[in-house]
Write a structure and sequence with these properties.
By secondary structure, the chain is an alpha+beta fold. It contains four helices and three strands; from the N terminus they run βααββαα. The model has no long low-confidence stretch (mean pLDDT 93).
């Protein structure tokens, strides 16, 4: 982890961005107090092109509409045989 003042960061931005690209965190300080942290970017989901590829290959299906407002508060349908749990556990086991 590297610490740098705002003034020094402005003067040498490219050098500090190179450090971030290499995996380092850069703590930005102002008058001796940390005010920000610059960290390497990590994606948390597919790009639009990857999303379209997954739709085309059948890995996912796009939503057809909006969920009802009460969707998350609705009572779950009965599953006395535990079929849903069995399906989830099987999916995890096989890595589908």
């Amino acid at each position: 982890m590297v610490s740098v003042s705002v003034t020094e960061l402005k003067a040498s931005l490219s050098a500090y961005l190179d450090k971030v690209k290499a995996g380092d965190d850069v703590i930005v300080t102002e008058r001796g107090h940390a005010i920000a942290r610059v960290v390497p970017f990590t994606r948390s989901g597919p790009t639009p092109a990857e999303y379209e590829d997954m739709v085309r290959s059948g890995q996912i299906r796009p939503a057809k509409g909006k969920l009802p407002d009460d969707f998350f508060t609705r009572e779950l349908p009965p599953d006395p045989e535990g079929l849903l749990l069995k399906a989830v556990l099987e999916e995890r086991e096989h890595g589908w």
